[in-house]
Amino acid sequence: MRIIVFGLLLSIVILNWLWPLPLPVSVKFLVSIFVIIASQYQFWSRLSSGSVFAPEFPRPLIILFNWAVGTILFLTLFQLALDLGTLVVALIAWQPVFIGTSARVAVGALAGLLAAVGVANALRVPHVRDVTVTIRGLSPLFDGYRLLQLSDLHITRLFSANWTSRVVARANAASADLMVVTGDFIDGSVDMRRSDIAPLAGLRAPDGVLAAPGNHEYFFDYAAWIRHLSGLGVDMLENQHRIITRGTARLVIAGVTDCSARQHGQVEPDLDTALVGAPPDAPVVLLDHQPGDAPAAAARGVALQLSGHTHGGMIRGLDRLVARGNNGFVSGRYQVGSMTLYVSNGTGLWPGFALRLGVPAEITRFHLRAE
Description:
Blueprint: H1 2-18, H2 25-39, H3 41-49, H4 59-93, H5 101-123, E1 128-135, E2 145-150, H6 161-173, E3 178-182, H7 190-197, E4 209-212, H8 222-231, E5 235-236, E6 240-246, E7 249-255, H9 271-274, E8 284-287, H10 294-299, E9 304-307, H11 318-324, E10 332-336, E11 339-343, E12 363-370
Parallel strand pairs: 1-12, 2-3, 3-4, 4-5, 7-8, 8-9, 9-11
Antiparallel strand pairs: 2-12, 6-7, 10-11
Helix pairs in contact: 1-2, 1-4, 4-5
């Protein structure tokens, strides 16, 4: 199926768009080779590291691959629209209509420009987004409590040590009381990412740094990553909770493992286990990488669930498709029963498709308010 899809994409770009252009055959041949090589980005990634999720190439080459893949996808869509539009006009006029060179150049330039903007947006260190959440039962002693969420960092050769250091600096400058990370720290093994992830040890908040694992941690020796992240000062919550206090008031921060754990022989997410021993009168903030199980968390009495995983859909319009695979949740705030769900667009992005258009990355600072 994958071969058929790629074959259709390449035939549209090479045969429908490129070949009719008035260029020397040698140029068309070279461009065709470039398109074919770029379309196999995930194959080259697997050759470089053993996984499609961790391209072990120089960063400029990863950026070029992402731009090329984005251009191919956009050009495919634009050329299809051009072909269909031409067909409609031809049927209406009932005479042949030909696509001119200027139209082909225009859609090619637009595809390349959009891909370049998309990659540039993906690579930026995100700004802090402020979100206010009113929580029923929150003590006035916690009114104004600031909780900072990072999610989907995907630290790799694309989002490397320099980018991670800048994220840490911006997160620390937000002056949060507590920092949380809702999974997908990395793509790659501990040995691959050791230096790139090292700046996370600099995250600082009075009440610490808590986190729940994401599905990508399971792709690369989950146990080794949990040990390494713990060594960096990140308190990993695997079906566990921590209690934050202000005087006599308490706030529970719970975290569950990812629902993909069962496919990797690891402990499955269990909110009941995570809340064993939690004070029944304290509001619960849940860290769950994937947002799909939010209704169950709401039924369990969770006040606020923080998730990621979707990357916000990455491209406006594509977000609707991503929502279908995540129980309708893809980006931002949702009211699920009496619970607030917030789905982060992600701080970084999977390097296999690093484009953002209309869906900015984020570092999210929550201001909790007592009802």
